[in-house]
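Lab meeting, action items carried over

1. Structure of the two-component assembly. Owner: GW. Status: complete.
Input record:
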Amino acid sequence: MQPEVERELVRLCRAGGARFYEPIVRAYEGPGLRIALGMLGSPDEAQGALQEAFVKAWQSLPRFDVERPFGPWFFRILRNHCRDVIRSQRSRSRFETRDEKLELRPAGVSSDPEHLHMKTEAKELLWKALSEVGDEHREILVLKELEDLRYAEIASILDVPEGTVASRLNHARRALRSVLLEMNVEYP
Amino acid sequence: MTNSVNHESLMRYLDGEATPEERSRIEEALTSSTELQRDAAIFGAMKRDLQGMTFPLSRDPSVWGVVNRRITRPVGWVLIVAGFAVWTVYGSYLYFSSAIDPWEKLATAAIGGGTLLLFSSVIYERYKEWLVDPYRDVYK
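Predicted assembly:
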């Protein structure tokens, strides 16, 4: 979405036009769902967290600086809500590696069934490792690797200096590698 | 890590966030340090695999419907309740200040009050059931 279009939509929403919120919701629900899913693990809880975050964002729109992009601000609300959910222990014991709504798709396209099976299995292990890596490590890995956000955007969402992002990513990746080693998965 | 390249620099390099000077320094260090080569290979492969984890969630409907209901319904409820309260107070005032027989007023008030009590108790029971309903979050 063009920044000027987004700004105008946010202005109209602040004036009370709920229907102008729809394009914003549709633009950010995809990445938002992936972030919530990466942080919470359960597709149902991710969907619930996403809805809640959009409602909270709507209620907080009067305090939002229209000159700033909506995305990082919304993702921060979503991330904080996901953290609350995790803190309340509702999702911890229900981290699902597989769900009928969730399908892990290998990065490369392969026609060899055996190769495809091995790759899918590797991705499942990676997903499991991601669930065991710790909340702080997982959230930064989700923002960087799953959403491919820039360091500046991640810093804005996590409310940390930009220089801290590389340091936290380094710790998170090393923690993930340790978990994978415990699962007898060695890289590369 | 080497003297000139630390862990954070390597992360910035892998993520495409390193400055041109930092990038050339790391690339130079990569030719001589096996430790750096190994770390770059490990984290590079891990990054590719993580980025390959995509979630096709197209079967899920958009959350807009639910969000829309949640942000617009409270306004409707506030208007309905406010209008109902105003009409009730004004109607009661008109009725009780009129010249109708007091017995008639009492009987009408009893019917109105009784209906309201029954209605609110049914709503309260349904609310209590909803609170403990294990299937309340199941989408139809």
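2. GW to write a short summary for the group page. Key points so far: The interface with chain A takes residues 7-12, 15, 17, 41-57, 59-60, 62-64, 66-68, 70-72, 137 of chain B (CB under 8 Å). Chain B has a mean pLDDT of 85.
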